[in-house]
Design goal:
17 helices; 4-stranded mixed sheet; 437 residues; alpha+beta
Length: 437
Amino acid sequence: MPSRFTLFNDPVHGFVSVPKGLVLGLIETPEVQRLRRIRQLGLGFLVFPGAVHTRFEHGIGAMALMQEALDTLREKGTVMDTDEIDGALAAALLHDIGHGPFSHTLEHQLVPPGPSGRPYHHERMSRALIGRVDRRLGGRLATALAIFDGTYERPFFHSLVSSQLDMDRLDYLRRDSFYTGVAEGVVGVARVIKTMRVEAGGGRIVIESKGAYAVENVLLSRRLMYWQVYLHKTVIAADHVLRSAFARARERWGRDPALQATAPSLAFFLAGDVTADDLDAPEAAGPQSDRHDALLDAFVALDDTDVLYSLKRWTESDDRVLADLARRFVTRDLFRTTPLDARPTDAQRADWHARTADWLVAEGLSARADADGAADYYVASGTARLSAYDADADAISILERDGTVRELTEAAGAPTASALEARREQAYVCLPKPVQP
């Protein structure tokens, strides 16, 4: 008898059984295969050499954890039909297909807001791409879309896809810890999933009290991973260099021969006039429909390779600022991120800007008349923020032994959870190394 599953060997979760039919077919689509060429940790590989894993692996991992969660819930009496199971697996697999090159790094550089003012977000692109795949498959992803949107009649399915304890988060914490070698990010995924159940009559996910410590560990691990990996000072510096190169290329578009060598799929975004409003699927054919389809086609064709190729070509630019920024990224000659005790004042920003302008002139990267404008690409300040747990936005519920359900910070088995609600902020400035605060 032929097998109903295809096995994927995942270094994090082991063998993953992928159901043949709808789910396996989705893996073979161009939208999902593209994720093999999108680094999961963006520019994290510039700090952690092993962090070259991709969004494809993460999608498979999130789907694998979804399988485990659904099996656990069914063992505890939650009835599901085949369409719901396939829909939940599809939603977990497809949840990140809207990520652009280097994941979050260029999220707001590729597609500007439109007349509506709604900003671009990778989840909007994921929704648009899932909708397109659904139309291609004749509506077979209707349940997956409802689960993804949070409109499905059984809300616990959406919680497994998007919440503070969803399969996305459980996979990326464990996977990113594995590939970066940061042991503090290791989480007890199995215990969290095995203690899940659907609250009687409530339609929401609750965690049995014996899993409360494991949940606290997930939240603590997330906090540690953010400060040690996702918000690492060198990652912030690399992000700044890449975004500055993109901003300069967009400003120079049509005036710089080197930009003619930009990868075609990337050139579409730098030269085109598409906006985030074009992500909304039109109801009928016409110019808006053409723009929508063109945007999705170009996005599916775009990946990390296009960006790296283009940057290498931009190093040949006659514009010294663009050539320098591209060279810095390609050769990892990055700026320095310096933590600050407090948010910078206007006087501090003006001083950094003036000293950077002087440095650009001294280095021969800019004429004095253009130095103030050029300095804008070399100076960045901001504040890194993180709250490991937000009880008000999306509470985690603990099922106590007496049958009562309490929010995590009020549960008897989670004595340190309230401390994880504290919001931590770190101001910083990113500057060329010779120009330091």
